[in-house]
Write a sequence for this structure.
């Protein structure tokens, strides 16, 4: 693992693609949409998690379900692994290539195929950017609820693969709740349709539910049917300023325990405030604050002010220095931008970062945050926290410099300790970024052999030869067993 | 890693910029802002991909003379739409210029680019070059060629150049002798500020759009500024820097810094977005030149787009010119300088001029120097989308404060036989002032 952080992947060199396969791929998608030049493939060696690097053998950029089907059929019939990729913004290395693999990218499949206003449904290709769906449906008074912080660039296909969350998933739920149907290309290129709003997916075996969050290990979603929501009438956004992350954490517990139902509750800690305030997305968070809490309520106008007043009271009771309220939509956007761009802004305070993702019971937030702080101090590492406090989804950002070999080792160890801390507190190893390649070795912290075998068995149903995104999610030992049972 | 010595030397210019590359955390927020990525879907044609290639050169994993590096660095429009969306504030524009320098040192640019840079950067060549241009325009040969030449093979580029040239003609309604009307406040406007303003004349601007320079001077004077003439100024060097010829860019910058410092002006008004963006970055361009860097920074701080100066003092309202205007943002004004509203404020100082922002105005028009000639396919695609968006406004005229954009959009409209004119915002304000009588003896006082 430590060797992975240096960017050099030890297991196996990338093999060039046989030229007959390359020319057949070009036949399907067009010459300019097949990339085999090793220099150009460098660009695809990482996704949003740059700690891992490995070039694929090729990148193919199809433009339709049929093309994806033909590409997957061709590659699988040659025993070549397929790694699906959207915008490459994932933070668990889910789109990292294997030495034998070819990346199938959905960047060109970026059309919204249908907006059905009466049924509040949209059908989109997987390369459509999350925020574009909301932009396209806003004129009809509708929007798409799951809002990952990377929503301005991440794609719906990637959201389906990772079952993405976002700040407002506290009230509205994650991606799975919004996917009503899928067209999927399975192993060997078979095209199947799962669910579909007209077919009531919940009264039969819920294969849509099984597919969402499968991290590209089951197949590639090529058309996605999504539920839309009506835009809420009113919204109130508050910014609470605290002396410490712990007191902000206590305020969160108090707000939820009081029976309020905020749409989002987010914590931004001191080091993160430093980063975003130095960026173009500065929102006027006080630099000396230990933590800022962004709280949002939405719904019908009546009652919103009362909810906001009660939340403000909770903050003050837990020692908030001040509580601001967004006065207009522009101000609200500004407060949110600072939260949503925080990850990218970290580049201003450190050359490299490892974003962790874990979930703990909300009531444990103060003690877990103190524990993370303690781990950071012990290893001499700066850890910036920015996270979905309302549902206990932590994002410790460990800041480091890749050029410092010693630090790399420490990052690895600190990272593992943080995971253990969260699991011990009754949480789990990922809230929304997925397991990918980064967390697979942590799977045994939370899952026993029987559960892991059940997951491996589910993968075999969809992908018996393990040719879709191998080496992800399941720990290495499980994959090995799966391969053995395949050859037996 | 395995780089030969020569190859390491080539990477040095970029290597010195490690600090500028490191803030990129690969978040990918820049992808949807990039016109080439949006159309090609290839990450090597995205800002993040290009930065990754630059990083690979610095790390010695990629040869800067490789086809991949040269192609994808060259294919960038340089629109810098990726900069305002970057949470880490990566200085992409500066890095691109250094990458271009690195790439062109490995393998020189194509002949059309080298020819153009040589001509624009050399005063003695510039005059005859633009004289011929004006001759082709004035005789109507440019317009004729753009109409009759076929759109394939070698004619395609010639046809485009002629259409660009023809599009630099003054918008006809502006030249009409309208009766003076709607004179508003010629006596009441506060003209006591009297900042001393120098005007950059530029190369293309002086060669083909001298009328815009004259309009700039008149409009500034009518708003109470004292305009000083600056001898010895030259081309700003923007196109050289964008093309990777940083040495020529620095040479031109030094001439301008000497000239503008000597003028004693408080502000330097620039009416071409590309030039303004380049001059505001003079400090960065000359950061390795201890003799000049301080003066470069001082000059950079004095540079304003002419619309910024006019908007800051709330431009004087002129006479009515009823027309429907489609406004398009030049990338080097919106993204590189962060100036969004000022040119619109200038247009709105003309009563009855109705301003519509072109849909997708924040995206590049595909002008980007001579992109349409060096990248006909992609440039045509990007330019075509812009022309469609402009036409959808059903406007009389399109306004955009940069000569490259004016020519690119103007040529696109002309080749589609569409009738919209093209103007710089100060041209409209100037005509409005003329109609208001501000320029008659004592009118401006």
């Amino acid at each position: 693992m430590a060797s992975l952080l240096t960017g050099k992947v030890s297991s196996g060199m990338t093999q060039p693609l046989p030229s007959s396969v390359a020319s057949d791929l070009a036949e399907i998608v067009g010459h300019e949409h097949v990339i085999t030049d090793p220099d150009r493939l460098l660009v695809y060696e990482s996704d949003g998690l740059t700690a891992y690097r490995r070039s694929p053998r090729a990148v193919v950029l199809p433009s339709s379900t049929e093309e994806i089907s033909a590409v997957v059929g061709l590659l699988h019939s040659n025993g070549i692994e397929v790694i699906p990729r959207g915008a490459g913004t994932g933070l668990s290395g889910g789109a990292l290539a294997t030495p034998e693999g070819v990346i199938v990218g959905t960047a060109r499949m970026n059309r919204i195929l249908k907006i059905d206003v009466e049924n509040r449904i949209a059908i989109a290709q997987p390369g459509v950017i999350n925020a574009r769906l909301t932009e396209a449906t806003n004129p009809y008074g509708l929007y798409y609820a799951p809002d990952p912080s990377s929503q301005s660039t991440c794609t719906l296909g990637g959201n389906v693969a990772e079952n993405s969350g976002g700040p407002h998933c506290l009230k509205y739920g994650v991606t799975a709740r919004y996917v009503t149907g899928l067209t999927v290309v399975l192993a060997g290129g078979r095209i199947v349709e799962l669910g579909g709003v007209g077919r009531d997916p919940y009264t039969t075996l819920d294969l849509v539910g099984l597919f969402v969050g499968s991290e590209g290990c089951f197949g590639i979603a090529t058309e996605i049917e999504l539920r839309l929501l009506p835009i809420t009438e009113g919204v109130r956004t508050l910014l609470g300023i605290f002396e410490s992350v712990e007191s902000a954490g206590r305020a969160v517990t108090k707000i939820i325990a009081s029976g309020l139902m905020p749409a989002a509750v987010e914590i931004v800690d001191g080091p993160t405030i430093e980063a975003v305030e130095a960026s173009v997305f500065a929102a006027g968070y006080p630099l000396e604050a230990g933590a800022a809490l962004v709280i949002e309520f939405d719904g019908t106008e009546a009652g919103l002010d009362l909810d906001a007043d009660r939340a403000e009271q909770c903050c003050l009771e837990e020692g908030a220095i001040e509580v601001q309220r967004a006065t207009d939509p522009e101000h609200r956007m500004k407060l949110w931008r600072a939260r949503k761009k925080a990850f990218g802004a970290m580049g201003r305070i450190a050359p490299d970062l490892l974003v962790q993702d874990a979930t703990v019971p909300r009531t444990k937030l103060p003690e877990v945050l103190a524990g993370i702080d303690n781990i950071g101090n012990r290893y001499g590492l700066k850890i910036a926290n920015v996270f979905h406090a309302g549902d206990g989804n932590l994002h410790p950002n460990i800041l480091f410099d890749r050029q410092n070999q010693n630090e790399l080792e420490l990052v690895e160890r600190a990272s593992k300790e943080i995971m253990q801390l969260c699991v011990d507190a009754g949480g789990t190893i990922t809230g929304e970024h997925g397991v990918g390649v980064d967390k697979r070795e942590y799977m045994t912290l939370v899952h026993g052999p029987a559960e892991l075998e059940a997951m491996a068995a589910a993968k075999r149903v969809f992908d018996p030869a393990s040719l879709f995104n191998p080496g992800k999610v399941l720990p290495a030992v499980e994959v090995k067993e799966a391969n053995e049972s395949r050859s037996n | 890693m395995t780089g030969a010595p020569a190859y390491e030397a080539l990477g040095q210019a970029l290597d010195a910029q490690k600090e500028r590359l490191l803030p990129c955390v690969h978040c990918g927020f820049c992808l949807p802002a990039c016109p080439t990525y949006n159309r090609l879907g290839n990450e090597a044609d995205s800002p993040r991909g290009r930065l990754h290639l630059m990083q690979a050169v610095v790390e010695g994993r990629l040869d800067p003379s490789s086809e991949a590096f040269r192609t994808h660095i060259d294919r960038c429009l340089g629109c810098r739409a990726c900069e305002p969306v970057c949470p880490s504030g990566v200085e992409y524009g500066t890095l691109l210029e250094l990458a271009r320098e690195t790439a062109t040192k490995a393998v020189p640019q194509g002949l059309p680019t080298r020819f153009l840079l040589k001509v624009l950067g050399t005063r003695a060549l510039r005059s005859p070059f633009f004289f011929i241009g004006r001759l082709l325009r004035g005789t109507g040969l440019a317009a004729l060629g753009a109409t009759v030449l076929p759109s394939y093979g070698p004619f395609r580029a010639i046809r485009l150049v002629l259409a660009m040239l023809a599009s630099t003609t003054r918008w006809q309604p502006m030249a009409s002798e309208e009766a003076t009307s709607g004179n508003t406040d010629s006596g009441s406007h506060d003209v006591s500020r009297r900042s001393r303003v120098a005007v950059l004349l530029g190369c293309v601007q002086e060669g083909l759009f001298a009328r815009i320079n004259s309009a700039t001077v008149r409009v500034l004077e009518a708003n109470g500024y004292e305009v000083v003439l600056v001898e010895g100024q030259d081309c700003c060097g923007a196109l050289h820097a964008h093309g990777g010829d940083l040495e020529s860019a620095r040479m031109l910058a030094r001439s301008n810094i000497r000239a503008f410092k000597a003028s004693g002006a408080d502000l330097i008004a620039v009416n071409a977005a590309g030039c303004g963006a380049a001059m505001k970055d003079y400090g960065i361009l000359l950061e390795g030149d201890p003799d000049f860097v301080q003066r470069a920074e001082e000059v950079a701080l004095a540079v304003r787009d002419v619309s910024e100066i006019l908007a800051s003092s709330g431009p004087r309202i002129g006479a009515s010119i009823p027309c429907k205007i489609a406004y398009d943002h030049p990338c080097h004004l919106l993204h590189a300088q962060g100036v969004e509203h000022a040119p619109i404020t200038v247009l709105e100082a003309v009563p009855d001029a109705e301003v519509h922002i072109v849909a997708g105005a924040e995206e590049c028009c595909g002008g980007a120097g001579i992109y349409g000639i060096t990248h006909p396919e992609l440039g045509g695609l990007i330019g075509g989308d812009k022309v469609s968006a402009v036409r959808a406004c059903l406007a009389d005229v399109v306004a955009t404060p940069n000569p490259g954009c004016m020519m690119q959009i103007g040529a696109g409209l002309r080749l589609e036989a569409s009738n919209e004119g093209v103007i710089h915002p100060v041209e409209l304000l100037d005509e409005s002032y003329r109609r208001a009588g501000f320029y008659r003896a004592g009118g401006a006082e």
Notes: Chain B touches chain A through 36 residues (CB under 8 Å). The CA atoms of residues 119 and 125 of chain B lie 5 Å apart.
